[in-house]
Automatic annotation (TrEMBL):
This is Uncharacterized protein. Residues 1-23 form the signal peptide. It holds the Pfam family GH113. It comes from Streptomyces yaanensis. InterPro entries: GH (IPR017853), GH113 (IPR055151). It comes from the Bacteria. Residues 41-55 have a biased composition (Polar residues). Keywords: Signal. Gene3D superfamilies: Glycosidases.
Length: 351
């Protein structure tokens, strides 16, 4: 999910990726075999997760952070995802860099520790974004060799941090459709990550990208940001939404079988706006609240996929915005907090 942001905020560059060094010693992968697989007898556990993104260097050190983690835990969630984000000024740039909107390494380490102290497991899912409303799928560097070299430095930086903090799962990329078709380059990226981090790996492909990814067999899980439109008009009819998932689910089950990998919804979410199910990927659909539609969408997704052996779970996008940082009013935002969608999670997960 791409966050709307201002160009001015992105102008403050703190560090270029070419100057970034690892934060800890490498961790050898030891040549282990990726797993688990759809047909494994141990493949029945699913992620019950919620994403807590950051939009500022100090968000994860916010006084609100502990409350957010406790509230996430209270829904019955057992996982939380953190999203440190670097930026490119232009899609064609050869490297990415930090800004004041990049969570500091120290704050990321501390919030991982606090999540673990509450009994939550952690996935770190680093993002690379563009200014304003630009879609990261538009990233298409002129010099791909330079970009992938920079990307390897960026992603192994966080792989080291994940290893040092005993993070349970790691994503090697998110929605980079403009470069995700390069098998050789991504094989090198994944190999480099495995030299630094021993845990399970995924890649978060957008819902219209995942079938074009050539490197799933280098990873442990297929990751999909599951923003499929489910309706052509606003609806809070759970059964109608469940029926809309049926052909998608059949296609995903067959794909998981062909790839011999389970599928994790690395993101899924709906704004609490009327019409959310028509464009789940959109931050702004209307100025009318749609709490019932959001809750119905949560219920339909869980009805459709919970219990499927090929399905590895979901990490909902997203929990609350940080104080004073929300660009979308809380009553209209993706957060389920304090809305009927939170009750759906509590009813399903807090048992």
């Amino acid at each position: 999910m791409t966050r709307r942001r201002t160009a001015a905020a992105l102008a403050a560059v703190l560090l270029t990726v070419s100057g970034c060094t690892s934060v800890g010693p490498g961790r050898g992968h030891g040549g282990g075999t990726p797993g688990p697989r759809p047909d494994d007898s141990t493949s029945t556990s699913t992620m019950r997760g919620i994403t807590l993104p950051s939009w500022n260097r100090t968000d994860y050190d916010s006084p609100a952070a502990d409350g957010y983690l406790r509230d996430i835990r209270a829904t019955g969630a057992r996982w939380v995802t953190f999203t440190p984000t670097w930026y490119q000024n232009r899609p064609t740039d050869p490297a990415m860099h930090t800004t004041e909107e990049t969570a500091s390494d120290g704050s990321l380490r501390r919030i991982v520790d606090r999540a673990h102290a509450l009994g939550l497991k952690v996935m770190i899912k680093p993002h690379v974004d563009l200014p304003g409303d630009a879609d990261r799928a538009e990233i298409g560097p002129r010099d791909r060799t330079a970009w992938f070299a920079a990307y390897r430095r960026f992603i192994t930086h966080y792989a080291d941090l994940a290893a040092d903090t005993r993070t349970e799962q790691f994503a090697v990329g998110t929605e980079l459709a403009g470069v995700s078709g390069d098998l050789a380059a991504w094989t090198k990226v994944i190999s480099a990550v495995r030299d630094h981090y021993d845990g399970p790996l995924t890649y978060a492909a957008n819902y219209d990208e995942y079938e074009r990814i050539p490197f799933w067999k280098e990873l442990d899980l297929i990751g999909i940001d599951a923003y499929w439109p489910l309706s052509t008009k606003p609806t809070d009819d759970t059964e109608r939404l469940r029926r809309a998932w049926e052909p998608i689910g059949k296609r995903l089950a067959a794909y998981a079988q062909r790839q011999n990998r389970r599928i994790l919804f690395t993101e899924a979410g709906y704004v609490s706006q009327r019409g959310a199910t028509t464009a789940p990927y959109a931050w702004t659909i209307s100025n009318r609240t749609g709490d019932a539609e959001q809750a119905a969408a949560y219920r339909a997704l869980l009805d459709s996929f919970e219990g499927k052996r090929w399905w590895a779970g979901v990490c909902w996008w997203m929990w609350d915005d940080w104080p004073d940082s929300g660009e979308t009013p809380a009553r209209l935002a993706y957060s389920p907090h304090g809305k009927p969608a939170e009750k759906v999670l509590r009813d399903r997960w807090a048992t």
